[in-house]
Amino acid sequence: MSHGRAIAFEGVEHHFDVGGTPVPALDRIDLTLEPGELVTLAGPSGCGKTTLLRLVAGFLPPATGSVTVGGEPVRGPAEERGVVFQQPTLFPWLTVRGNVELGPRLRGVAKAERAELADRYLRLVGLQDFAQHRPYELSGGMQQRCQIARVLANEPGIVLMDEPFGALDALTRERLQEELLEIWRATGRTILFITHSVDEAVFLGSRVLVMSPRPGRIVFDEPAVFGEHGARVPADEIRALPEYVALCDRVRHAIHQPTNVD
Ligand SMILES: Nc1ncnc2c1ncn2[C@@H]1O[C@H](COP(=O)(O)OP(=O)(O)OP(=O)(O)O)[C@@H](O)[C@H]1O
Questions:
Q1: Most buried residue, 80, 93, 159, 177, by CB count within 10 Å?
Q2: Which residue's C-alpha comes closest to atom 4 of ligand 1?
Q3: H or E stretch covering 82
Q4: What's the order of all strands across the beta sheet hosting 7-18?
Q5: Average pLDDT over residues 48-61
Q6: What percentage of the chain carries pLDDT values higher than 70?
Q7: Predicted-complex ipTM score
Q8: Domain boundaries in the chain?
Q9: 26 Cα: distance to centroid of ligand 1 (angstroms)
């Protein structure tokens, strides 16, 4: 099993060309995510979170600077960098198992090994009893679990998650947060997780980042330990801890502070 890999941004800037005018999206991003970190990234709408994630995914190259994964420059999308979007992107004509096995199948992984990978990750996300169902027979939360298993079956060193629980109801979202922490602890992947929710950022992150908008910069970067409490401490108790509430306050403050222009 591959393990989490480091992600490094060096002097990264990015802008979009809108009708001939450059619109700045990212400015002076110097940031390293250590292997196995679960880094959550919050910030107001339009501050550049998705752009940052897309650079790591290899969906677009930075205008300036470099993005490397495990010391290698990102040159385009690759299976070692799995992406989980807000809306699951599952093939409706394949079963749940078929969707999870698709990546390994396209990579030419032998049938028995594919089945083993699918079993392992379907079990990890709790869908082992739904392997023969079609995606449209599943609830939104189950579809998102299936998408996570599909990404993990490629054994990526990095998992990029762009508001993956944003479309789910509150209860399902909290359940999936706890499950994600279990998956993270079990697999040791490096995870970059974008969210609009301060609570989600603090609950999940082993490190919490906040970006400010126009142009997007990292304005807050603090370690967090709550995800590491794991199943030993109930989620409600974690959320009531004074240090948890204090970190939420600091993150909220960083999100709402006026943009520093120098
Ligand atoms: N393809 C594009 N063409 C032009 N401008 C873009 C494009 N993609 C993003 N932008 C602009 O770049 C800035 C950053 O966008 P981005 O989607 O990265 O922000 P975000 O923080 O992920 O927003 P949200 O939280 O609303 O998803 C915004 O001003 C946005 O309008």
A1: 159
A2: 16
A3: strand 81-84
A4: 21-33, 7-18, 64-69, 72-73
A5: 96
A6: 97
A7: 0.96
A8: 7-80+156-256
A9: 10
